[in-house]
Design a protein that fits this description.
The chain is of the alpha+beta class. It is built from five helices and four strands, in the order E-E-H-E-E-H-H-H-H. It has helices at about 15-55, 85-90, 95-100, 110-115, 120-125, and strands at about 1-5, 10-15, 60-65, 70-75. It has a two-stranded antiparallel ribbon with strand order 1-2. A two-stranded antiparallel sheet has the order 3-4. A hairpin with a 2-residue loop joins strand 1 and strand 2 (about 10-15). The two termini are about 20 Å apart. The relative contact order is 0.06.
Length: about 140
Amino acid sequence: MLKAKVGKRVSEHKDSDTEIAVMQFVNIKREIDELNVKLKEQKAVLSQKARDFLSDDDASTITFSVDEDSVKVSFGWDVKVDDEGKLQDILGKRFEDLVKTSVVFKPVDKLRVMAIDDDGIRECLIVKEKAPAVSVVK
């Protein structure tokens, strides 16, 4: 029997399509999780081997191939500015061409609610419905 919980209210339904979908979703998610563990292990092995192969080279990418199967391993850096003022002092005039500055306007959820009732606000926004999030509850 399918149980549906909306808020604190739980109801029971006869819906075999949804029951099957729930059971298959949970099983597929479990399989994916197990495969992701195995994939992570192989990624670690390949990353270490790639570091070994590239140790004396300036390259940051290597491709391993066996027969028709190939795996590319790329290394990179994620660099973020931690102390803008100090960096600006050090770089001086070069700061502008070495650091990209951006301003981000991120509306809070209350603005979305206000836009429902106000055409003027809604015209200033792009409102798109997100894809539904589906996850296994443990």
